[in-house]
Specification:
Protein name: Carnosine dipeptidase 1
GO molecular function: dipeptidase activity; metal ion binding
CATH topology of the largest domain: Aminopeptidase
Domain Peptidase M20 dimerisation: 228-380
CATH architecture of the largest domain: 3-Layer(aba) Sandwich
Strand content: 15-25%
Number of helices: 16
Number of domains: 2
Shape: globular
Bound molecules: 2-acetamido-2-deoxy-beta-D-glucopyranose, zinc ion
Strand order of the largest sheet: 1-4-8-5-9-19
Number of strands: 20
Radius of gyration: 25 Å
Family: Belongs to the peptidase M20A family.
CATH class of the largest domain: Alpha Beta
Largest sheet: 6 strands, mixed
Distance between the termini: 29 Å
Organism: Sparus aurata
Structural class: alpha+beta
Protein backbone atom coordinates (compact mmCIF):
# COMPACT_ATOMS: atom_id res chain seq x y z
CA UNK A 1 0.00 0.00 0.00
CA UNK A 2 2.77 2.32 0.82
CA UNK A 3 4.05 1.73 -2.66
CA UNK A 4 1.71 4.42 -3.85
CA UNK A 5 3.83 7.06 -2.27
CA UNK A 6 6.93 5.77 -3.93
CA UNK A 7 5.75 6.10 -7.51
CA UNK A 8 7.68 8.52 -9.57
CA UNK A 9 5.44 10.44 -11.85
CA UNK A 10 6.76 12.09 -14.92
CA UNK A 11 3.95 14.57 -15.07
CA UNK A 12 3.51 17.46 -12.74
CA UNK A 13 2.03 16.71 -9.37
CA UNK A 14 -1.27 18.26 -10.12
CA UNK A 15 -2.08 15.53 -12.63
CA UNK A 16 -0.35 12.72 -10.90
CA UNK A 17 -3.31 12.30 -8.61
CA UNK A 18 -5.26 10.61 -11.39
CA UNK A 19 -2.60 8.02 -11.78
CA UNK A 20 -2.50 7.48 -8.08
CA UNK A 21 -6.21 7.05 -7.96
CA UNK A 22 -6.26 4.60 -10.82
CA UNK A 23 -3.30 2.71 -9.54
CA UNK A 24 -5.12 2.61 -6.31
CA UNK A 25 -8.30 1.22 -7.78
CA UNK A 26 -6.33 -1.31 -9.73
CA UNK A 27 -4.22 -2.91 -7.06
CA UNK A 28 -4.08 -1.83 -3.52
CA UNK A 29 -7.75 -2.06 -2.89
CA UNK A 30 -7.56 -5.85 -3.35
CA UNK A 31 -6.25 -6.16 0.12
CA UNK A 32 -8.73 -3.76 1.56
CA UNK A 33 -11.22 -5.63 3.75
CA UNK A 34 -14.04 -3.34 2.72
CA UNK A 35 -14.39 -4.80 -0.76
CA UNK A 36 -17.41 -6.93 0.09
CA UNK A 37 -19.07 -3.71 1.07
CA UNK A 38 -18.39 -2.43 -2.43
CA UNK A 39 -20.35 -5.19 -4.10
CA UNK A 40 -23.12 -4.97 -1.56
CA UNK A 41 -23.40 -1.25 -2.24
CA UNK A 42 -23.86 -1.86 -5.95
CA UNK A 43 -26.43 -4.54 -5.23
CA UNK A 44 -28.33 -2.13 -2.96
CA UNK A 45 -28.19 0.65 -5.52
CA UNK A 46 -29.28 -1.53 -8.43
CA UNK A 47 -32.20 -2.82 -6.34
CA UNK A 48 -33.73 0.66 -6.42
CA UNK A 49 -35.88 1.25 -9.49
CA UNK A 50 -34.67 4.81 -9.91
CA UNK A 51 -36.34 5.31 -13.28
CA UNK A 52 -36.40 9.07 -13.83
CA UNK A 53 -38.87 8.84 -16.71
CA UNK A 54 -41.63 7.20 -14.67
CA UNK A 55 -43.45 9.58 -12.32
CA UNK A 56 -44.75 6.63 -10.30
CA UNK A 57 -41.17 5.75 -9.46
CA UNK A 58 -40.33 9.19 -8.19
CA UNK A 59 -40.38 8.07 -4.52
CA UNK A 60 -37.77 5.43 -5.42
CA UNK A 61 -35.69 8.10 -7.08
CA UNK A 62 -35.83 10.28 -3.95
CA UNK A 63 -34.82 7.24 -1.91
CA UNK A 64 -31.94 6.61 -4.31
CA UNK A 65 -30.55 10.11 -3.80
CA UNK A 66 -30.90 9.67 -0.04
CA UNK A 67 -28.95 6.41 -0.29
CA UNK A 68 -26.15 8.15 -2.13
CA UNK A 69 -25.99 10.74 0.63
CA UNK A 70 -26.06 7.96 3.23
CA UNK A 71 -23.13 6.30 1.52
CA UNK A 72 -21.11 9.51 1.55
CA UNK A 73 -22.00 10.88 4.99
CA UNK A 74 -20.15 8.33 7.12
CA UNK A 75 -17.11 9.04 4.99
CA UNK A 76 -17.08 12.49 6.50
CA UNK A 77 -17.55 14.42 3.31
CA UNK A 78 -19.41 17.65 3.48
CA UNK A 79 -22.55 16.11 2.01
CA UNK A 80 -25.54 18.08 0.85
CA UNK A 81 -28.82 17.22 -0.79
CA UNK A 82 -29.47 20.19 -2.99
CA UNK A 83 -33.10 21.00 -3.74
CA UNK A 84 -33.37 21.80 -7.44
CA UNK A 85 -37.08 22.52 -7.50
CA UNK A 86 -39.94 20.98 -9.36
CA UNK A 87 -40.65 19.46 -12.70
CA UNK A 88 -43.67 20.45 -14.69
CA UNK A 89 -45.60 17.53 -16.13
CA UNK A 90 -47.40 17.64 -19.50
CA UNK A 91 -50.75 17.74 -17.65
CA UNK A 92 -49.75 20.95 -15.87
CA UNK A 93 -49.09 19.32 -12.49
CA UNK A 94 -45.73 19.59 -10.82
CA UNK A 95 -43.60 16.99 -9.08
CA UNK A 96 -40.46 17.44 -7.01
CA UNK A 97 -37.20 16.80 -8.82
CA UNK A 98 -34.78 14.40 -7.13
CA UNK A 99 -32.26 16.35 -5.11
CA UNK A 100 -28.70 16.59 -6.36
CA UNK A 101 -26.09 15.16 -4.01
CA UNK A 102 -22.93 17.19 -3.60
CA UNK A 103 -20.04 16.16 -1.40
CA UNK A 104 -16.58 17.36 -0.66
CA UNK A 105 -13.60 15.48 0.73
CA UNK A 106 -10.81 17.77 1.73
CA UNK A 107 -10.54 21.51 1.28
CA UNK A 108 -6.80 22.02 1.39
CA UNK A 109 -6.13 25.21 -0.59
CA UNK A 110 -2.69 23.85 -1.47
CA UNK A 111 -4.20 20.91 -3.32
CA UNK A 112 -6.04 20.77 -6.56
CA UNK A 113 -9.71 19.92 -6.56
CA UNK A 114 -11.38 17.46 -8.87
CA UNK A 115 -15.09 17.03 -9.23
CA UNK A 116 -16.59 13.70 -10.24
CA UNK A 117 -19.95 13.87 -11.96
CA UNK A 118 -22.28 10.90 -12.19
CA UNK A 119 -25.92 9.91 -12.15
CA UNK A 120 -27.90 7.24 -10.35
CA UNK A 121 -31.17 7.35 -12.25
CA UNK A 122 -31.79 4.66 -14.84
CA UNK A 123 -33.71 3.86 -17.99
CA UNK A 124 -36.87 1.77 -17.55
CA UNK A 125 -36.47 -2.00 -17.42
CA UNK A 126 -38.88 -4.89 -17.02
CA UNK A 127 -38.22 -8.61 -16.88
CA UNK A 128 -40.80 -9.02 -19.68
CA UNK A 129 -38.71 -6.82 -21.98
CA UNK A 130 -36.49 -9.82 -22.47
CA UNK A 131 -34.15 -9.73 -19.50
CA UNK A 132 -32.64 -13.06 -18.57
CA UNK A 133 -32.55 -12.00 -14.91
CA UNK A 134 -34.50 -9.62 -12.70
CA UNK A 135 -33.13 -6.22 -13.79
CA UNK A 136 -33.22 -4.95 -10.20
CA UNK A 137 -31.54 -7.94 -8.64
CA UNK A 138 -27.82 -7.63 -9.39
CA UNK A 139 -26.82 -11.03 -10.71
CA UNK A 140 -23.33 -12.31 -11.27
CA UNK A 141 -23.08 -14.59 -14.27
CA UNK A 142 -19.56 -15.63 -15.17
CA UNK A 143 -18.05 -12.39 -14.09
CA UNK A 144 -20.69 -10.13 -15.56
CA UNK A 145 -22.90 -8.24 -13.16
CA UNK A 146 -26.35 -7.92 -14.71
CA UNK A 147 -28.75 -5.25 -13.60
CA UNK A 148 -30.34 -2.03 -14.78
CA UNK A 149 -27.99 0.86 -14.16
CA UNK A 150 -25.03 -1.42 -13.38
CA UNK A 151 -22.92 0.13 -16.12
CA UNK A 152 -24.92 3.31 -16.66
CA UNK A 153 -23.99 4.79 -14.24
CA UNK A 154 -24.20 3.25 -10.76
CA UNK A 155 -21.02 1.13 -10.72
CA UNK A 156 -18.82 3.90 -12.14
CA UNK A 157 -20.13 6.34 -9.52
CA UNK A 158 -19.46 3.80 -6.79
CA UNK A 159 -16.00 3.10 -8.18
CA UNK A 160 -15.03 6.72 -7.62
CA UNK A 161 -16.60 6.83 -4.18
CA UNK A 162 -14.82 3.64 -3.23
CA UNK A 163 -11.53 5.05 -4.41
CA UNK A 164 -11.90 7.80 -1.81
CA UNK A 165 -13.16 5.32 0.75
CA UNK A 166 -10.15 3.11 0.18
CA UNK A 167 -7.77 6.00 0.77
CA UNK A 168 -9.58 6.58 4.03
CA UNK A 169 -9.57 2.92 5.01
CA UNK A 170 -5.82 2.87 4.57
CA UNK A 171 -5.45 6.06 6.49
CA UNK A 172 -3.83 7.80 3.59
CA UNK A 173 -4.20 11.40 2.73
CA UNK A 174 -6.04 12.12 -0.52
CA UNK A 175 -3.63 13.68 -3.00
CA UNK A 176 -6.31 16.16 -4.06
CA UNK A 177 -9.57 17.51 -2.80
CA UNK A 178 -12.41 15.46 -4.25
CA UNK A 179 -15.91 16.70 -4.90
CA UNK A 180 -18.93 14.80 -6.15
CA UNK A 181 -21.97 15.97 -8.06
CA UNK A 182 -24.46 13.15 -8.40
CA UNK A 183 -27.81 13.69 -10.01
CA UNK A 184 -30.98 11.70 -10.62
CA UNK A 185 -32.41 13.11 -13.85
CA UNK A 186 -29.72 12.36 -16.44
CA UNK A 187 -31.69 9.84 -18.44
CA UNK A 188 -34.44 12.37 -19.11
CA UNK A 189 -32.24 15.38 -19.82
CA UNK A 190 -30.76 16.50 -16.48
CA UNK A 191 -33.77 18.62 -15.66
CA UNK A 192 -32.79 21.27 -13.10
CA UNK A 193 -29.07 20.55 -13.12
CA UNK A 194 -28.05 23.35 -15.46
CA UNK A 195 -29.65 25.90 -13.15
CA UNK A 196 -28.03 24.29 -10.11
CA UNK A 197 -24.57 24.44 -11.72
CA UNK A 198 -25.11 28.05 -12.66
CA UNK A 199 -26.34 28.89 -9.15
CA UNK A 200 -23.30 27.24 -7.54
CA UNK A 201 -20.76 28.39 -10.08
CA UNK A 202 -19.18 30.81 -7.66
CA UNK A 203 -19.57 28.60 -4.60
CA UNK A 204 -19.34 24.82 -4.95
CA UNK A 205 -17.65 24.93 -8.36
CA UNK A 206 -15.41 27.93 -7.78
CA UNK A 207 -12.40 25.96 -6.54
CA UNK A 208 -12.88 22.96 -8.83
CA UNK A 209 -9.96 22.52 -11.21
CA UNK A 210 -11.03 19.50 -13.24
CA UNK A 211 -14.22 17.61 -13.86
CA UNK A 212 -14.28 13.85 -14.42
CA UNK A 213 -17.19 12.08 -16.07
CA UNK A 214 -17.36 8.28 -16.26
CA UNK A 215 -20.69 7.96 -18.03
CA UNK A 216 -19.87 6.15 -21.26
CA UNK A 217 -18.16 2.98 -22.46
CA UNK A 218 -15.15 1.78 -24.39
CA UNK A 219 -15.31 1.17 -28.11
CA UNK A 220 -13.63 -2.20 -28.08
CA UNK A 221 -11.69 -4.38 -25.70
CA UNK A 222 -9.05 -1.71 -25.59
CA UNK A 223 -9.43 0.91 -22.82
CA UNK A 224 -10.46 4.33 -23.96
CA UNK A 225 -10.65 7.97 -23.06
CA UNK A 226 -13.47 9.97 -24.54
CA UNK A 227 -12.79 13.48 -25.79
CA UNK A 228 -15.94 14.44 -27.61
CA UNK A 229 -19.67 13.91 -27.78
CA UNK A 230 -22.18 14.87 -30.42
CA UNK A 231 -25.01 17.19 -29.60
CA UNK A 232 -28.54 16.86 -30.87
CA UNK A 233 -31.20 19.08 -32.37
CA UNK A 234 -34.60 17.44 -32.16
CA UNK A 235 -37.41 18.60 -34.43
CA UNK A 236 -41.13 18.19 -34.80
CA UNK A 237 -42.57 18.73 -38.28
CA UNK A 238 -46.33 18.93 -38.18
CA UNK A 239 -48.56 18.79 -41.24
CA UNK A 240 -52.21 19.53 -40.67
CA UNK A 241 -54.99 19.19 -43.21
CA UNK A 242 -58.66 18.24 -42.83
CA UNK A 243 -60.33 18.96 -39.51
CA UNK A 244 -60.66 15.24 -38.75
CA UNK A 245 -59.38 11.83 -39.86
CA UNK A 246 -61.03 10.64 -43.06
CA UNK A 247 -61.97 7.32 -44.69
CA UNK A 248 -59.71 6.63 -47.65
CA UNK A 249 -62.47 4.86 -49.56
CA UNK A 250 -64.82 7.80 -49.21
CA UNK A 251 -62.41 10.74 -49.47
CA UNK A 252 -59.24 9.24 -50.94
CA UNK A 253 -58.40 10.90 -54.25
CA UNK A 254 -60.17 14.13 -53.39
CA UNK A 255 -58.02 15.50 -50.55
CA UNK A 256 -54.35 16.37 -50.44
CA UNK A 257 -53.17 14.07 -47.70
CA UNK A 258 -51.02 15.43 -44.85
CA UNK A 259 -49.15 12.15 -44.56
CA UNK A 260 -48.11 12.23 -48.22
CA UNK A 261 -46.89 15.80 -47.77
CA UNK A 262 -44.99 14.86 -44.67
CA UNK A 263 -43.31 11.80 -46.19
CA UNK A 264 -42.43 13.94 -49.21
CA UNK A 265 -40.62 16.58 -47.21
CA UNK A 266 -38.98 14.08 -44.85
CA UNK A 267 -37.49 12.39 -47.88
CA UNK A 268 -35.63 15.58 -48.78
CA UNK A 269 -33.62 15.65 -45.53
CA UNK A 270 -31.00 13.02 -46.32
CA UNK A 271 -30.00 11.04 -49.39
CA UNK A 272 -29.94 7.23 -49.49
CA UNK A 273 -26.14 7.41 -49.28
CA UNK A 274 -26.26 9.46 -46.07
CA UNK A 275 -25.67 12.92 -47.49
CA UNK A 276 -27.53 15.62 -45.57
CA UNK A 277 -29.44 17.69 -48.11
CA UNK A 278 -30.30 20.69 -45.93
CA UNK A 279 -28.22 23.61 -47.25
CA UNK A 280 -25.54 24.90 -44.90
CA UNK A 281 -25.33 21.92 -42.56
CA UNK A 282 -22.42 20.07 -44.15
CA UNK A 283 -20.58 23.32 -44.79
CA UNK A 284 -20.48 24.11 -41.06
CA UNK A 285 -18.69 20.89 -40.10
CA UNK A 286 -15.06 21.19 -39.04
CA UNK A 287 -12.90 19.47 -41.68
CA UNK A 288 -11.24 16.16 -40.85
CA UNK A 289 -7.56 16.82 -40.30
CA UNK A 290 -4.73 14.49 -41.28
CA UNK A 291 -3.88 13.88 -37.63
CA UNK A 292 -7.44 12.95 -36.88
CA UNK A 293 -7.52 10.60 -39.85
CA UNK A 294 -4.33 8.94 -38.60
CA UNK A 295 -5.75 8.66 -35.10
CA UNK A 296 -8.87 6.90 -36.39
CA UNK A 297 -6.66 4.51 -38.33
CA UNK A 298 -5.04 3.33 -35.12
CA UNK A 299 -8.23 2.84 -33.16
CA UNK A 300 -9.19 -0.73 -32.44
CA UNK A 301 -12.54 -1.33 -34.08
CA UNK A 302 -13.88 -4.41 -35.80
CA UNK A 303 -16.41 -3.69 -38.52
CA UNK A 304 -17.67 -7.26 -38.66
CA UNK A 305 -18.24 -7.34 -34.93
CA UNK A 306 -20.12 -4.11 -35.19
CA UNK A 307 -22.29 -5.46 -38.00
CA UNK A 308 -23.01 -8.63 -36.06
CA UNK A 309 -23.88 -6.70 -32.94
CA UNK A 310 -26.59 -4.72 -34.69
CA UNK A 311 -27.58 -7.45 -37.11
CA UNK A 312 -26.96 -5.86 -40.50
CA UNK A 313 -24.87 -7.08 -43.40
CA UNK A 314 -24.06 -3.70 -44.89
CA UNK A 315 -23.18 -0.38 -43.31
CA UNK A 316 -23.25 3.13 -44.74
CA UNK A 317 -19.45 3.04 -45.09
CA UNK A 318 -17.25 0.04 -45.57
CA UNK A 319 -13.97 1.31 -44.13
CA UNK A 320 -13.14 1.97 -40.51
CA UNK A 321 -12.11 5.60 -40.73
CA UNK A 322 -15.22 6.69 -42.63
CA UNK A 323 -17.42 4.74 -40.29
CA UNK A 324 -15.87 6.12 -37.10
CA UNK A 325 -15.88 9.63 -38.52
CA UNK A 326 -19.57 9.37 -39.27
CA UNK A 327 -20.28 7.89 -35.88
CA UNK A 328 -18.54 10.70 -34.01
CA UNK A 329 -17.63 13.78 -35.96
CA UNK A 330 -20.15 14.23 -38.75
CA UNK A 331 -23.78 15.14 -38.33
CA UNK A 332 -26.58 12.84 -39.36
CA UNK A 333 -30.34 12.91 -39.69
CA UNK A 334 -32.44 10.22 -38.01
CA UNK A 335 -36.18 9.99 -38.50
CA UNK A 336 -37.70 8.60 -35.31
CA UNK A 337 -41.41 8.39 -35.81
CA UNK A 338 -44.69 9.95 -36.86
CA UNK A 339 -47.26 10.86 -34.27
CA UNK A 340 -50.82 10.61 -35.51
CA UNK A 341 -49.93 7.98 -38.07
CA UNK A 342 -51.76 4.69 -37.98
CA UNK A 343 -49.26 2.31 -36.44
CA UNK A 344 -51.39 -0.36 -34.78
CA UNK A 345 -51.64 -3.86 -36.24
CA UNK A 346 -54.38 -4.31 -38.82
CA UNK A 347 -55.51 -2.55 -41.95
CA UNK A 348 -57.30 0.62 -40.97
CA UNK A 349 -58.07 2.63 -44.11
CA UNK A 350 -57.59 6.02 -42.52
CA UNK A 351 -56.35 9.32 -43.88
CA UNK A 352 -54.81 10.93 -40.78
CA UNK A 353 -55.79 14.58 -40.53
CA UNK A 354 -52.70 15.70 -38.66
CA UNK A 355 -49.31 14.02 -38.48
CA UNK A 356 -46.18 15.07 -36.61
CA UNK A 357 -42.82 13.73 -37.68
CA UNK A 358 -40.03 13.48 -35.11
CA UNK A 359 -36.49 13.66 -36.39
CA UNK A 360 -33.17 14.79 -35.05
CA UNK A 361 -29.83 15.95 -36.33
CA UNK A 362 -26.71 15.02 -34.40
CA UNK A 363 -24.55 18.08 -33.80
CA UNK A 364 -20.79 18.34 -34.21
CA UNK A 365 -18.28 21.17 -34.13
CA UNK A 366 -18.74 23.83 -35.56
CA UNK A 367 -22.49 23.57 -35.94
CA UNK A 368 -24.65 25.98 -34.01
CA UNK A 369 -28.09 24.72 -32.91
CA UNK A 370 -29.66 28.17 -33.32
CA UNK A 371 -28.50 28.29 -36.93
CA UNK A 372 -29.45 24.66 -37.55
CA UNK A 373 -32.96 25.48 -36.36
CA UNK A 374 -33.24 28.23 -38.96
CA UNK A 375 -31.66 26.16 -41.72
CA UNK A 376 -34.00 23.23 -41.15
CA UNK A 377 -37.11 25.36 -40.76
CA UNK A 378 -36.41 27.47 -43.86
CA UNK A 379 -35.53 24.43 -45.94
CA UNK A 380 -38.59 22.40 -45.00
CA UNK A 381 -40.87 25.36 -45.69
CA UNK A 382 -39.18 25.80 -49.05
CA UNK A 383 -39.62 22.18 -50.15
CA UNK A 384 -43.13 22.17 -48.74
CA UNK A 385 -44.02 25.30 -50.72
CA UNK A 386 -42.94 23.56 -53.93
CA UNK A 387 -45.64 20.95 -53.33
CA UNK A 388 -48.29 23.72 -53.51
CA UNK A 389 -50.21 21.93 -50.80
CA UNK A 390 -53.09 23.64 -48.98
CA UNK A 391 -52.08 21.84 -45.78
CA UNK A 392 -50.28 23.67 -42.98
CA UNK A 393 -46.68 22.94 -42.01
CA UNK A 394 -45.25 23.81 -38.62
CA UNK A 395 -41.62 23.09 -37.73
CA UNK A 396 -40.34 23.36 -34.15
CA UNK A 397 -37.04 22.49 -32.55
CA UNK A 398 -37.64 20.98 -29.11
CA UNK A 399 -34.08 20.09 -28.08
CA UNK A 400 -30.94 21.97 -29.04
CA UNK A 401 -27.96 20.31 -27.35
CA UNK A 402 -24.50 21.40 -28.41
CA UNK A 403 -21.60 19.04 -29.05
CA UNK A 404 -18.63 18.86 -26.70
CA UNK A 405 -14.99 18.47 -27.66
CA UNK A 406 -11.87 18.45 -25.49
CA UNK A 407 -8.26 19.06 -26.40
CA UNK A 408 -6.51 15.69 -26.26
CA UNK A 409 -3.15 17.43 -25.83
CA UNK A 410 -4.28 19.10 -22.62
CA UNK A 411 -2.26 17.98 -19.58
CA UNK A 412 -5.44 16.53 -18.10
CA UNK A 413 -5.68 14.11 -21.02
CA UNK A 414 -1.96 13.39 -20.82
CA UNK A 415 -2.54 12.43 -17.18
CA UNK A 416 -5.54 10.34 -18.16
CA UNK A 417 -3.53 8.51 -20.84
CA UNK A 418 -0.76 7.81 -18.37
CA UNK A 419 -3.27 6.59 -15.80
CA UNK A 420 -4.85 4.14 -18.23
CA UNK A 421 -1.43 2.99 -19.35
CA UNK A 422 -0.44 2.35 -15.78
CA UNK A 423 -3.57 0.41 -14.93
CA UNK A 424 -3.97 -1.61 -18.13
CA UNK A 425 -0.46 -1.58 -19.47
CA UNK A 426 -1.79 -0.42 -22.81
CA UNK A 427 -2.32 3.00 -24.35
CA UNK A 428 -5.97 4.02 -24.46
CA UNK A 429 -7.83 4.64 -27.67
CA UNK A 430 -8.91 8.24 -27.86
CA UNK A 431 -12.52 8.05 -28.86
CA UNK A 432 -15.61 10.15 -29.15
CA UNK A 433 -19.16 9.36 -28.27
CA UNK A 434 -21.80 9.55 -30.99
CA UNK A 435 -24.46 10.27 -28.39
CA UNK A 436 -25.04 13.34 -26.31
CA UNK A 437 -23.98 14.06 -22.73
CA UNK A 438 -25.26 17.64 -22.54
CA UNK A 439 -23.94 18.18 -19.06
CA UNK A 440 -20.36 18.10 -20.35
CA UNK A 441 -21.04 21.13 -22.45
CA UNK A 442 -22.80 22.87 -19.55
CA UNK A 443 -19.88 22.22 -17.24
CA UNK A 444 -17.54 23.60 -19.85
CA UNK A 445 -19.59 26.68 -20.65
CA UNK A 446 -20.65 27.57 -17.12
CA UNK A 447 -17.68 26.58 -14.98
CA UNK A 448 -14.97 27.01 -17.65
CA UNK A 449 -13.17 24.00 -16.18
CA UNK A 450 -11.40 21.27 -18.12
CA UNK A 451 -13.32 18.05 -18.42
CA UNK A 452 -12.17 14.51 -19.01
CA UNK A 453 -14.34 11.52 -19.77
CA UNK A 454 -12.87 8.31 -18.43
CA UNK A 455 -15.21 5.50 -19.38
CA UNK A 456 -15.68 2.71 -16.87
CA UNK A 457 -17.75 0.37 -18.99
CA UNK A 458 -17.42 -2.26 -21.67
CA UNK A 459 -18.27 -1.76 -25.32
CA UNK A 460 -21.06 -4.33 -25.09
CA UNK A 461 -22.62 -3.41 -21.75
CA UNK A 462 -26.02 -2.86 -23.33
CA UNK A 463 -26.75 0.56 -21.87
CA UNK A 464 -30.45 1.34 -22.14
CA UNK A 465 -31.04 -2.20 -23.47
CA UNK A 466 -32.13 -5.50 -22.07
CA UNK A 467 -29.57 -7.37 -20.01
CA UNK A 468 -27.45 -4.35 -19.18
CA UNK A 469 -24.35 -5.48 -17.40
CA UNK A 470 -20.92 -4.49 -16.34
CA UNK A 471 -18.07 -6.92 -16.61
CA UNK A 472 -16.40 -7.77 -13.38
CA UNK A 473 -13.16 -7.79 -15.14
CA UNK A 474 -13.83 -5.41 -17.97
CA UNK A 475 -11.94 -7.53 -20.46
CA UNK A 476 -10.92 -11.14 -20.45
CA UNK A 477 -7.29 -10.15 -20.70
CA UNK A 478 -7.40 -9.12 -17.11
CA UNK A 479 -8.53 -5.58 -16.87
CA UNK A 480 -7.91 -4.27 -13.46
CA UNK A 481 -9.79 -1.04 -13.74
CA UNK A 482 -12.60 -1.96 -11.44
CA UNK A 483 -10.69 -3.97 -8.93
CA UNK A 484 -12.84 -2.48 -6.25
CA UNK A 485 -15.73 -4.43 -7.66
CA UNK A 486 -13.84 -7.48 -8.74
CA UNK A 487 -12.47 -8.25 -5.36
CA UNK A 488 -15.84 -8.80 -3.80
CA UNK A 489 -15.15 -12.37 -4.86
CA UNK A 490 -12.31 -12.51 -2.40
CA UNK A 491 -12.24 -15.13 0.35
CA UNK A 492 -13.91 -12.85 2.90
CA UNK A 493 -16.99 -12.37 0.83
CA UNK A 494 -20.16 -14.32 0.60
CA UNK A 495 -21.67 -13.81 -2.80
CA UNK A 496 -24.31 -15.51 -4.91
C1 LIG B 1 -32.11 -12.32 -6.46
O1 LIG B 1 -31.76 -13.44 -7.22
C2 LIG B 1 -31.27 -14.53 -6.46
C3 LIG B 1 -30.76 -15.58 -7.40
O2 LIG B 1 -31.72 -15.89 -8.36
C4 LIG B 1 -32.37 -15.01 -5.53
O3 LIG B 1 -31.88 -16.06 -4.72
C5 LIG B 1 -32.80 -13.86 -4.63
O4 LIG B 1 -33.90 -14.26 -3.83
C6 LIG B 1 -33.21 -12.66 -5.46
N1 LIG B 1 -33.46 -11.55 -4.60
C7 LIG B 1 -34.53 -10.82 -4.67
C8 LIG B 1 -34.63 -9.69 -3.72
O5 LIG B 1 -35.41 -11.04 -5.46
ZN1 LIG C 1 -25.42 7.46 -18.19
Amino acid sequence: MLQIKQYKFKLSFKFSFLMQLFKFISNEVCVCPCVCVCFQALRDWVAIESDSSNMLKRPDLHRMMEMVAQKLRPMGGNVELVDIGEQELPNGQTIALPKVVTAQFGNDPNKHTVCVYGHVDVQPAKLEDGWATDPYNLTDIKGNLYGRGASDNKAPVLAWIHAVEAYQALNMELPVNVKFVIEGMEETGSNGLDAMILAQRDTFFSDVDYIIISDCGWLSRRPALTYGTRGNCYFYAEVEGPKQDLHSGVYGGTVIEPMTDLIGILDTLISPSGKILIPGIREAVAPLSDEEWKMYQDIQFDLDNYKNKIGVNQLMYSNKVDLLAHMWRYPTVSIHGIEGAFSDPGTKTVIPAKVIAKFSIRQVPNMDPALVKKQVTDYLHLVFAKRKSPNKLKVTMVIGAKPWLADTQHPLYEAGKAAVKRVFDVDPDLIREGGTIPIARTFQDVTRKSIIMMPIGGFDDGLHSQNEKIMLSLVAAGTRFLQALKTFKGPNCKTS
